[in-house]
Amino acid sequence: MYANIDVAIQALYVFIAFNLVCIAFIYAIKLRNIRRRRQNDRFQVKFKDYLTYVHASLNGVEPLRVPPWTMNEVEREAMQERLNDMVECFSGWQRQQLIRLCEDLGLVKHHLERFHHRSYPVKLDAAYHLGCMRVKEAMTGLLEMLKEHPLNSSLFVVARAAAKCARNQQDLGVIVQQLLRHDKKCYELVADILADSELDTVSLYTEYVNHTNSAYIQIGLIGMNGYTDPAAASAVYRLMDSKHEDIQLKAVEVYLKSSRLLPRNVVSKLLSHSNLDIRRLTLEAVGTLRNAAYVELMRASLADADQRVVYTCAKGLLKMGQEGMAAVCESAAAAQGTDRGDFMHRLIDEELKHLSMQLHHLDKLTQYNTLMYTYDKIFRKPARVVRVV
Fold first, then answer.
1. pTM value?
2. How do residues 28-74 score in pLDDT, each as one tens digit?
3. Residue-wise over 12-47: b if at least 16 C-beta within 10 A, else e?
């Protein structure tokens, strides 16, 4: 009995000691964070005038001067973070000025030394900062680290740092190859990483959309989605007939954004596509053109089985002058008494209400009167014009 009590007492002592150690450890971390926060606040006051000078001198011809005093470790880390943010915000000559300042402050040399440290966390942190400072000398080491890196969240930190430091498109190609070898289909993330590069990636994306591997095609299409160059439309045209539905959708999206002229045969083909997202995207693109030549092609979409397509079509037609408005009103009149007819009636009423709140603009007033006249004429109501200019 007494033996059991002794064991229990010893276990209690161990438990208390363990809790005291944990409390001391947590308290030490808290004190360290408080001390760092106070030192960072002092940095903000101490370096306020210097940072103002940096902002004011970014466009100057002369290199930025380093602070006239020595920084301690905490001040150097705070300065590094501030310069990292500034490098990301600026481009061109201003960015080059900031990168040169990082070199003059010894930050580049410091992180290049840390990059060869045995500790992985230290090496990863150095890779991140080297990427922020666009240090080309680190590219070889970053690619080697990327090739040996396992699949985890840190892999993309290294990849993004490498993309920022890339010297040419061959480097970017290696980055994509290393990320795709894990076969995780994170194409949007890969394209986002490539977008951080200072290199021109248009030719790289064009090469990818002509690749035989669907993964490269996906990255190329995502990368080209932000371009409005007509050359992009011709590059992705054949992919609109791809056997992969996701490639089809992305190719259509790029084509519609970058093409300055939408041929009627292409529009007709896309509006009859089995994928409702493709039909909807096509109607949005045609609607923004506000060209009455597409009214007859769009009219059939008012009878689409999906209500979202009908909504997009009606909204586009209502902005295409009297012909487009007549198409919507005629379809609504033909479908009177049905759910479709009621839905289109609500769309017309919403558009009239929306326009009536902007009658101080001449173009909105003209649209309002045109739609009201067309609506009254088709539904056999006495013609009325609310306002006249």
1. 0.79
2. 777 767 766 666 666 667 788 888 899 999 998 899 999 888 888 88
3. eeeeeeeeeeeeeeeeeeeeeeeeeeebeeebeeeb
